[in-house]
Amino acid sequence: MDHFTYVDGAMLAEQVPMADIAAQVGTPVYIYSTATLTRHVAVFREGLSQIHDPLIAFAVKANPNAAVLATLAKLGLGADVVSAGELLRAIAAGIPAERIVFSGVGKTADEMRIALEQGIYQFNLESEPEAEMLSEVALSMGRKAPVAYRINPDVDAGTHAKISTGKSENKFGIPYDRALASYAAARDLPGLDVQGVAVHIGSQLTDLTPLEAAFIKVGALIERLRAEGHDIRTADLGGGLGVPYDPSQPLPPSPADYGAMVTRITQGWNVRLMFEPGRLIVGNAGVLLSQVVRVKQGAQAPFVIVDAAMNDLLRPSLYDAWHDIRAVHPKGERAAANVVGPVCETGDTFAMHRDMDVVGAGDLVAFMTAGAYGATMASTYNSRALTPEVLVSGDKWAVVRARPPIEALIEGDSIPAWIASEGVQD
Question: Where does pyridoxal 5'-phosphate bind (predicted)?
Answer without folding.
Answer: 240, 276-279, 373
